[in-house]
Amino acid sequence: MSQLPEQPSEGPVPTSADVARLAGVSRATVSYVLNNNSTVRISDPTRRRVREAAGELGYVPHAAARSLRAGHTRMVLLPAGNHPAAPLHHRFFHELESGLRRLDYTVVQHGSLGLDAEEAARAWAELRPVAVVAPGGIALTPQGIAVLRRSGARAVITLGPQPVEGAHALVMDEREVGRCATTHLLERGRRRIGVVIPEERGVGVFAEPRLAGARRAAAGGGARIEPLPLRYEEESAAALAARWRTLGLDGVFAYNDDYAMLLMRALQDAGIDVPGETAVIGAEDLMLGRLLRPRLSSVRMELATAQPLADLVDRLVRNPGGEPERHDLLSARAIPREST
Amino acid sequence: MSQLPEQPSEGPVPTSADVARLAGVSRATVSYVLNNNSTVRISDPTRRRVREAAGELGYVPHAAARSLRAGHTRMVLLPAGNHPAAPLHHRFFHELESGLRRLDYTVVQHGSLGLDAEEAARAWAELRPVAVVAPGGIALTPQGIAVLRRSGARAVITLGPQPVEGAHALVMDEREVGRCATTHLLERGRRRIGVVIPEERGVGVFAEPRLAGARRAAAGGGARIEPLPLRYEEESAAALAARWRTLGLDGVFAYNDDYAMLLMRALQDAGIDVPGETAVIGAEDLMLGRLLRPRLSSVRMELATAQPLADLVDRLVRNPGGEPERHDLLSARAIPREST
């Protein structure tokens, strides 16, 4: 590892010993006060004096030193996503983060772009997190889970469409989305149903269970399912629309609202009436669907509130020995509008 | 701070001493090999033996212990955004992250939702990053910059529309976007130009400089600028469209493509011809603009490539004493389509 020059000349970094000296207390007292340890009784004036001294010197506790002393960290790792997160997931992660912070955990996001699953797990393990919440499958394999557990992670929790062996699972069962969309099309009398499969990398982990859910719903309703590969490009949508009448479909679940907007435009440009000739339904219930004409039917997805999950992470950290737990987070329902 | 029970029963966390014993080398050698220190000559067979022993035991180096020994960290903090990031920024951050990782830095994202700027800076300082790149203004104030520098950060770098005193600045000058959009409308002969100002929280930091850029361009072209507050809701857009003819505008820069789609739909529903009566231009050049009818004119934004910026961070870390540097990242150009 390359070496760095000494600290710049603006003076040394203040330490807890400096704070203790200025406040006239022991280093242990400084540590108790600044780490909000409530098990030790310290008078309010002393607490105030320590905080004032820390403020005056510009001292903040050192998370790494604290974790080395304690033998474990309070760090929870939420790996940063490789894609721009949907607003739904974004809100969920921020709720989870706030909940964990209220429980006195340090929440850190760690990217893994350009690393394979095992390299990513090793990079995370170097930070010695006490808990890791990570997308299952893509980012976290059974091998990676073992690396993290051996480095001291008490709770390894996957988040995603399917559980992964050896870890707790927060499951967002995407099959539900496909099931809802397809059931709605069946209720509208459609029996020859296309399901858009985005060709973009990394989307398969969502698209495949959505297709599986559609197949299951169709099997019950005596309908045919036709997978329709599509790139998020006008040319790809125009090519699909050009062979639409050969396919003989009367309904399509377009993966999500963005792909639905793309496909519906191509179908309309090709002279295919929506919903008369083909009904179109998206998913994720974005604002844009309401702005289209016809207004786009969609599947609204809801995630469980995140605060109880922060408590769950805390419980799993405190009791690391138990069997893998599974918690289902996702619910879905069809929002009918004009396109179906 | 609450106490945790002892490690679970699956065995102690392997240490570098365990690796050294198994490989038959010193702990220092283990450290040199696993931290990729190239200043010490170690034979290839020894390197291989150390790596095999580490693999067998499932040992990974402890970033915190390493940084305490070295007296500094190799950690660069990229605070996680409070909003779903635009694809443009998302790609930029991931390029920056890969670039820093190639330079042997550990890149960590740290959220600050629910914290004010000074609390956020203190939370980041606890991790003792060697460098921090953070959105200026919202997340990083001169006080916060001082806290980070006192805790040992060698480079504090803001990212955003404006520089902040005391820090280096990667500037994305959003005025450029407003200037481009307005200049395009002027070229189309429009002289009474509305500028949409989203009422959503946190957007002002982008909307204000876009308005300022529009004003500056209009001043040169002898045009009038009318700020138009708008919420991202159909009702808000319908209310604005209902008083459109009273406003007497012949052109509008709608902040971005999402707001442009919302407003254009409301104008069309109110019987106002686009572009005949009012020209509409968005920004960010999203796919959806090409799917609208009329096709939406937009402003395409481009960011500088991030790899040179990773080198810049590294240089600032190595030479922490210099004057604050400013680097401009954003360029913009109008993409004319049918709506103007």
UniProtKB/TrEMBL annotation, chains A, B:
Gene3D superfamilies: 3.40.50.2300, lambda repressor-like DNA-binding domains (1.10.260.40). GO terms for molecular function: DNA binding. Keywords: DNA-binding, Transcription, Transcription regulation. Pfam families: LacI (PF00356), Peripla_BP_3 (PF13377). Residues 14-70 form the HTH lacI-type domain. InterPro entries: HTH_LacI, LacI/GalR-like_sensor, Lambda_DNA-bd_dom_sf, Peripla_BP_I. The keyword DNA-binding applies. SMART domains: HTH_LACI. This is LacI family DNA-binding transcriptional regulator. It comes from Streptomyces sp. 900116325.
